[in-house]
Amino acid sequence: MDRLEAFEKMLADIQKQADYEKERLKIMKEEGKEKTATYRQYLGNRIMYRFFLISINNMD
User: Fold this and answer.
1) What's the Rg (C-alpha) of the chain?
2) 2-35 as b/e: b if 16+ CB within 10 A
3) Are 25 and 43 in contact (CB under 8 A)?
4) Mapping DSSP to helix (H, G, I), strand (E, B) and coil, where does residue 41 land?
5) Is 10 left (phi over 0), alpha (psi -120 to 50) or beta?
6) HSE of 53, CA atoms in CB hemisphere, 13 A
7) What are phi and psi of 37, to 5 degrees?
8) What does the domain layout of the chain look like in residue ranges?
9) Would you say 25 and 46 are in contact if contact means Cβ atoms under 8 Å apart?
10) What residues contact 50, with CB distance under 8 A and at least 6 apart?
11) pTM here?
12) What are 7-59's pLDDT values in tens digits?
């Protein structure tokens, strides 16, 4: 696997994880679990993923 393939795999994995955590946040919010540590961790991750993905998109 060359560097480009490794990067593209990492990017796809991050997008997949971001989508999963976004869905979990929605479910947890509906369940009233906004104050849990897991919810807050997902929220922090979401901010980090968003920043990373925006930075990657701006490289084009």
Assistant:
1) 14
2) eeeeeeeeeeeebeeebeebeeebeebeeeeeee
3) yes
4) helix
5) alpha
6) 15
7) -65, -40
8) 3-58
9) yes
10) 18
11) 0.82
12) 999 999 999 999 999 999 999 999 999 999 999 999 999 999 999 999 988 88
